[in-house]
Write the structure tokens for this entry.
Amino acid sequence: MKRIISSFGILVLSALFKTSFCSAQFVTGLEPKYQGLHDPRCIDIMGVPLEGPDSIFIPALDNIGFKRVISEDDEPNTYYFNGDYYGIKANLVIETDDKTKLLSTALVTSGPYRTFALFDRNNRYFLLKLQRQYGNFDAKGDGSLHTMTNLGYIKISNTLHEDKSRTIRVFYLNTTPYYKDVFNMGMKGAVQEVITENPVAENGIEHFNPQGKSTGTDIIDRVYSPTGYLLSAAMLEPSGTKSQLTYEYDEENRLIKRTLVNTKENIRSVNEYSYNSDDEIKQQTQKVFDSNNECIVSITMKNNYTAHDDEGNWTTNELKLMYWEKDHQPQNINVTQTRTISYWEDD
């Protein structure tokens, strides 16, 4: 929470010195609608995901009418925009992480409002918009309202100026990883390391960086979508050759198919995934096809999770595996798996 307050304070000061105030008016017309890619796994401003590098969020914000304003005295790793926030004139300040250059915080300022009636009306309007998306906000002692969700932290407050005018401020802090390699494994949160006893469809040890990207060296040449989902890659085979990987997702951005093509061996392996209501992998099937497109191996894995940690990730799984290989009798195998998971915020 100290980091949240500190970031908020820096952005407030930055906005005070950089923003040219305007007399905002209540707007009842149509607000901008984002026409780009949506991601339900991060907080957003009017549909624009608050994540990623500037090559992603600048054109995305431009899509809803937020135009970048550049001056010689801009703060490092800070971006300034003017536009309409839910149809009302506002300024937007984006800060990025010093090391990763990924978006970290966003601050919207609207005002100053010369009359309390106009300020109160627009303040209620912004709060209603936010509550419809993120639920109820809690009051703080300083008069601000805030909420902490599994996606991030949002705070709406106001500043009273010497001339009695008021400026509305909405602060966003995204707490979800940008890269979704963790999510593709049916997990959530800032996972750092996963150690699996009796691994079947995964490595015994998996590591992820603080941005959610897998640090494994067996998957190379990765290509990610603007919202951090893996689209294609290559797998380095023991022979030194590369097998090509492609990934497909459903409407909820859940991985539903992974296809591996090994041209040297003339085989194609297809993994398909289905999910339970908690977005955990309920079932996984793997089929291997030869050069004649004939299935030569079929594996079905059904998961029964019996224990979870505080983050909601499974720690015990009773796996039922059905294995079939061409010209062999099918086999049924039961495997008890346990996992030890560590998270970046634990450090």
About this structure: The helical segments are 2-18, 54-63, 116-134, 181-184.
